[in-house]
Recover the amino acids of this structure.
């Protein structure tokens, strides 16, 4: 695969040249003051992206999966009760991790393509008179299905039930690309990674703890060593780490936050929404449907596109890679072979999105699907043109 073509998988995402250069740096003494001068601005930058004044941010050499484990092991004890919804591959994996840690998980089965049922959560939490449920898990953006769930609604469900459970949110494929309001939504732990909205290589688990979550750390009894945030906090206070840090990635994270904040958070979110709208216009022009059941569930970072019954969606992904050197995402879990995914997050522009749509059209025509060349591209072009004209009029 040529590195000249953008990728359209939902992570890792395209890396801007300035961030690639920030990661590619000479070795430094990570126990010197130099490291602290890159670490602390990176932590503060993440807080701004999360829209939190209260949380403490921790960076581990890991991925979002390690971030999940950090959240669980630092706040819970064996046998603690957890509430979750299974509506995609990544919510499924978080539930599986809870079970492996000997937690007592109540999970609601939700059709893949639907969001988290906040009303059902409220019923369960209201019925939990003894407040045995310690944590509610929520996947903000289900990467496997292109479904965005309403985290504010889940907070309202907790408040309506007058329940003290902690709210943990997987924002791996949303944070840095879609609006995330940690303090306003009452999120107690937010989890993400370096390789999606932050536009960096994989390798950093980024986890933020609210004051309430920090208090829970003192009574948690699940074992943790590598992911112990107490050790990490002690290291930060000395401008260091409890072990060897991924210096280049942390330097890159600092640069990534500067880039995002320089563009402006609301502008970043608007760009992702505009690009996603063009993708959705193309899907409609192709006569296909998204996996997400309704417009209010549509993700602004990834679209999972259903193919006709009897057709293997994996053929689209493999043909695109082998013939046109373009990468799209395969379907996962219950939608494997039924959808292909277009990731549209991170370092992406309207023009880049159009190149992906053009290749997707060629692939589908090559494989005999009833798609007309240029139809989706034209629909996306019109969407982008109208969006640009509208933005210019508002600016004037």
């Amino acid at each position: 695969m040529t590195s000249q073509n953008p990728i359209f998988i939902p992570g890792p995402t395209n890396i801007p040249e300035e961030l690639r250069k920030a990661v590619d740096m000479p070795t430094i003494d990570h126990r010197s003051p130099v490291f602290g001068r890159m670490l602390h601005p990176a932590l503060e930058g993440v807080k701004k992206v999360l829209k939190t004044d209260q949380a403490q941010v921790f960076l581990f050499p890991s991925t979002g999966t390690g971030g999940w484990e950090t959240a669980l092991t630092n706040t819970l004890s064996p046998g603690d009760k957890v509430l979750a919804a299974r509506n995609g591959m990544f919510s499924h994996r978080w539930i599986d991790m809870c079970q492996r840690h000997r937690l007592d998980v109540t999970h609601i089965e939700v059709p893949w393509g639907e969001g988290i049922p906040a009303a059902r959560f409220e019923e369960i939490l209201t019925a939990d008179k003894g407040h045995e449920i310690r944590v509610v898990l929520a996947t903000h953006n289900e990467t496997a299905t292109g479904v965005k769930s309403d985290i504010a609604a889940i907070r309202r469900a907790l408040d309506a039930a007058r329940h003290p459970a902690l709210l943990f949110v997987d924002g791996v494929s949303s944070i840095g690309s879609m609006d995330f309001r940690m303090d306003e939504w009452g999120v107690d732990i937010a989890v993400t990674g370096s390789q999606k909205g932050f536009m960096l290589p994989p390798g950093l688990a980024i986890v933020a703890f609210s004051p309430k979550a920090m208090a829970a750390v003192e009574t948690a009894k699940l074992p943790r060593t590598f992911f112990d945030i107490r050790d990490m906090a002690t290291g930060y206070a000395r401008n260091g780490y409890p072990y060897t840090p991924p210096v280049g990635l942390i330097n890159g994270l600092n640069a990534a936050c500067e880039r995002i904040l320089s563009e402006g958070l609301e502008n970043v979110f608007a760009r992702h929404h505009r690009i996603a709208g063009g993708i959705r216009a193309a899907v409609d022009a192709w006569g296909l449907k998204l996996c997400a059941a309704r417009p209010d569930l549509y993700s602004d970072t990834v679209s999972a596109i259903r193919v006709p019954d009897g057709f293997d969606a994996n053929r689209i992904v493999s043909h695109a890679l082998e013939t046109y050197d373009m990468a799209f995402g395969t379907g996962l879990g219950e939608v494997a072979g039924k959808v292909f995914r277009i990731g549209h997050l991170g370092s992406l522009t309207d023009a880049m999105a159009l190149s992906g749509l053009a290749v997707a059209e060629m692939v589908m025509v090559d494989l005999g699907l009833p798609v007309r060349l240029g139809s989706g591209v034209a629909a996306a072009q019109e969407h982008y043109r109208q969006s640009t004209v509208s933005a210019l009029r508002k600016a004037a």
About this structure: The chain has 13 helices and 13 strands.
